[in-house]
Model the fold of this input.
Amino acid sequence: MTFNKICILGLGYIGLPTATMFASHGEDVLGVDINPQVVESLQKGKVHIHEPGLAEAFDRALATRKLSFATQPAPADAFIIAVPTPFYEDNLGELGGIKFKKADMRAVTSAAQAIVPHLQPGNLVVLESTSPPRTTVELLVPILEKSGLKAGVDFYLAYSPERVLPGQILRELVENARVIGGISPESAQAGHALYATFVKGQIIETDATTAEMVKVMENTYRDVNIAIANEFARLSDRFGIDVWEAIQIANLHPRVKILNPGPGVGGHCISVDPWFLVEAAPDITPLILNARQVNDGQPHYVLDLVRRALGNDLQGRRVAALGLAYKPDVDDLRESPAVEVVHLLQGAGAVVKAFEPFKPEAGIAGVQAVPTLEAALEDAELILLLVSHGQFKMLTPIQVQSLTPARILVDTVNSWQGKDWAAAGFAYHRLGVRK
Ligand code: SAJ
Done:
């Protein structure tokens, strides 16, 4: 089976690196995005997202002349859907008193509908977007069969989750194991043949629903593990010990690997995907729901830490918030707990200036994002470290002292050596520590 022309729908954090990868391995690739600004920018050779190595890889792929962009799909041998699957912000589901967030599958639905007029016998369609189990068979099959062709008979259909870590996407796309879940064994084989173009990791064939479940299980497993780390932080705080020290010692046990507590869980994956399982079966997912609630509650715990450091009344108190991204060294602000912390502080009356080095011009409704570290610090009373970006970790007390009158620090990500800052005259508070 060979697929020479590939059409990729959705040119975000997954679709664009995937398009780049296929093109640089000799395939003809049409990248499609409904946002004309994204298409225009890519046509001009400008990458619209920050991911280490992507701009360079994209330049090399463009140079092959195998990569083009449009706002509409066109006939191809294989179609890959890599559009977002968020949850509805204010349309909660409820069953038996349990409230849950519901998956918003509108982008997947319209991408599939856009493929229908172009679908030909022998084509392959792959869904990569993280989706609730049974999406491929229950949502995609009926849409694609409107073409008059039968899924698994006239065309191949598979689910293949992306599993790459933002910050390491280009390496992980190639090296990670790749799961291909076909709606028929032949569909899985077709998907295998397509991704073998560039994947060096193991390629595993299974059925579509298993592949969907694998993906959601992985992220849910991580969410639950982060939730317990966050609960350990709150407990250590109450017991008057240092959670970071306790975790380090516990992790010396050969079968224990506790993750890091922090201001919460963000990003477009781990904070979203567990909801797909809760929504599908709220009656049998109390642990997954609780973990989500613990992690979503973490920004409130950070608010309490700031109150403890500054006093209960935050009215008019000036805070410099360092970092808005959902995790270190990425520019992605989606579902970021740091943004939530800023909103909570402002809701309590504090005046917050936030600095995000990877998106200094970030225009977030209701957040005063300043373009430089200096601007954030110049009149602050308290410095709140929310994201462990490399450039924040390198800051020294001497540098910071000269930029700000603030002498109170709250470190929510364990990025600084408390004793160095204390020696320089800072009152140093750390999440998960009360001594
Ligand atoms: N976080 C913690 N403590 C930790 C680890 C992470 O609080 O010990 C927080 C981060 O700060 C961030 C969030 O969790 O806010 C998620 O970060 P992450 O680095 O754990 O994961 P993502 O969302 O960037 O990428 C995940 C990955 N999934 C797994 O590791 C199981 C990635 O492989 C997936 O491809 C990606 O989700 C996805 O697209 O689904």
